[in-house]
């Protein structure tokens, strides 16, 4: 049994993917080829954004807007601790300070009330300047963007939707970019929309921000606006006007993603059917099944339950051939390298509790009923509820 069955997806689209990749190989345009531009157009349309720009990975996607906004050492960036380290990692990259915010006990996403309290705490201390909020769409479901965006605007902060796990998630039919200044995502292979290597993207409705990031991702190259009205005696592509980075999505990965994007909406529907079936059979069997925000549609990057005997359950499932995973057993703020950074008022008790209780089960669009029944039966067996 596969925790995430990438082979089943490949078997479905193998001919189309192989043909796309072969086309790139024949054309020889391996970096920023036409497939990259086509993918960016498709991502923007799917994600309801005016602009989409690909990049090398999801971590760079988070760093690029922070660079564009000129993050300073005295700036505070508010983010959850119950997530992958990349969310917080990019902040000290640029010399600023992450401030860790607790999570909602039902959704595992940023708690808006604790966010506001954390902003007020930082303002009262006067040592840092509240600058940016990074909300995470953990396990594939959207954060509470209506509430978080209202708080960010009230305090004059920028808002990043870290949709590395949740690209495609919505609230009342609207994607996170409806509320955020920018949405970022990752195309790591295990993500709901993943490539066959590393990759990432940013989506925004801010044309100026998009153009700035377009420059930053290619060594700070001059953009169309920089070049307009100037006469050049040399190729302007060698004119660098910003300190940037090398963060380009290669053309082969774009080719793969074009075929995956074509079936992505159907896969999200399939993931939701799998999740609904898990909920139906595990409600009351485990301590907690996933809760999705009102009006929300999750992409179900992971299907995560809670169990008071998590480690014993994991061992039992392993003995029955059922793979599991624990995200994230050590919250970021509990790791030594990040322990120097501030926490919101009264610490992060919900984060620390959930880190001890959550466990994720096999989840992918091609999980058939027979295989899923094996997972459910093994959990019921562990709980003494066979049948």
From TrEMBL:
GO MF: transaminase activity
Gene3D superfamilies associated with the record: Aspartate Aminotransferase, domain 1 (3.90.1150.10), Type I PLP-dependent aspartate aminotransferase-like (Major domain) (3.40.640.10)
Classification via InterPro entries: DegT/StrS_aminotransferase, PyrdxlP-dep_Trfase, PyrdxlP-dep_Trfase_major, PyrdxlP-dep_Trfase_small
Family: Belongs to the DegT/DnrJ/EryC1 family.
Keywords: Aminotransferase, Pyridoxal phosphate, Transferase
Coiled coil: none
Listed name of the protein: Aminotransferase DegT
Alphabetized Pfam families for the sequence: DegT_DnrJ_EryC1 (PF01041)
Naturally occurring in which organism (per UniProt): Glycocaulis albus
């Amino acid at each position: 049994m596969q925790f995430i069955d990438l082979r089943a997806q490949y078997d479905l689209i193998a001919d189309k993917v192989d043909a796309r990749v072969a086309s790139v190989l024949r054309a020889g345009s391996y970096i920023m080829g036409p497939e990259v531009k086509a993918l960016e157009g498709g991502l923007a349309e799917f994600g309801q954004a005016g602009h989409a720009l690909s990049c090398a990975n999801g971590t760079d996607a988070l760093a690029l807007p922070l660079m564009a906004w000129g993050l300073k050492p005295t700036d505070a960036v508010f983010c959850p601790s119950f997530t992958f380290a990349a969310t917080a990692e990019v902040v000290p990259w640029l010399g600023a300070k992450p401030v860790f915010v607790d999570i909602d006990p039902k959704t595992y996403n940023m708690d808006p009330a604790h966010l506001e309290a954390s902003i007020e705490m930082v303002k009262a201390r006067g040592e840092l300047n509240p600058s940016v909020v990074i909300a995470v769409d953990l396990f594939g479901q959207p954060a509470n963007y209506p509430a978080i965006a209202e708080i960010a605007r009230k305090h004059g902060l920028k808002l990043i939707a870290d949709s590395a796990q949740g690209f495609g998630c919505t609230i009342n039919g609207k994607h996170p970019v409806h509320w955020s200044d920018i949405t970022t995502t990752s195309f790591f292979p295990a993500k709901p929309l993943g490539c066959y290597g590393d990759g990432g993207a940013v989506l925004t409705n801010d044309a100026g921000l998009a153009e700035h990031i377009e420059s930053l991702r290619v060594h700070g190259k001059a953009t169309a606006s920089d070049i307009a009205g100037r006469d050049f005696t040399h190729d302007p592509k060698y004119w660098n006007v910003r300190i940037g980075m090398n963060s380009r999505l290669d053309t082969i990965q774009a080719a793969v993603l074009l075929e995956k994007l074509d079936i992505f909406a159907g896969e999200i529907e399939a993931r939701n059917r799998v999740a609904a079936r898990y909920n139906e059979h595990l409600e009351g069997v485990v301590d907690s099944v996933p809760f999705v925000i009102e009006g929300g549609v999750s992409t179900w990057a992971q299907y995560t339950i809670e169990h008071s005997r998590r480690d014993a359950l994991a061992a039992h499932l392993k003995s029955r051939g059922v793979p599991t995973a624990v995200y994230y057993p050590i919250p970021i703020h509990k790791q030594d390298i990040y322990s120097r950074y501030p926490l919101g008022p009264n610490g992060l008790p919900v984060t620390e509790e959930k880190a001890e209780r959550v466990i994720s089960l096999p989840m992918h669009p091609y999980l058939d009923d027979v295989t899923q029944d094996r997972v459910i039966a093994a959990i019921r067996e562990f709980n003494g509820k066979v049948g």
